[in-house]
Amino acid sequence: MDETLPPCPKCSCEYTYEMGSLLVCPECAHEWAAGAGDDEGTDVIRDAVGNVLADGDTVTVIKTLKVKGSPTGIKSGTKVRNIRLVKGVGDHDIDCKVDGIGPMQLKSSVVKKA
């Protein structure tokens, strides 16, 4: 093999290996596409259907979510305006303010771009 594999973008481990079309890190188990650039693949946040999200977008919640302390939660179809993309806790990557609930973080996998 003449080409060396890139280090893991999450933990910088240099012992990555190929598994099919993906690159895999043996230390943190992170998987990413072999053709994706280091900067491009990690900074892009996509919604549940694959649309690229940006700060200030309006999104629609696609499934009913339970919210601690709220009797109703967030119903499917709720529009959330003016989102902000952040590195949140776990995989919560959207910071927003939901009408009737207040400020919170959402996962990009439960919203679609409106």
Automatic annotation (TrEMBL):
NCBIfam families: phnA. It comes from the Bacteria. Belongs to the YjdM family. Residues 45-114 form the Protein YjdM C-terminal domain. This is Alkylphosphonate utilization protein. SUPFAM superfamilies: Prokaryotic SH3-related domain, Zinc beta-ribbon. Signal peptide: none annotated. Residues 4-33 form the Protein YjdM N-terminal domain. It comes from Rhodococcus oryzae. Pfam families: YjdM, Zn_Ribbon_YjdM.
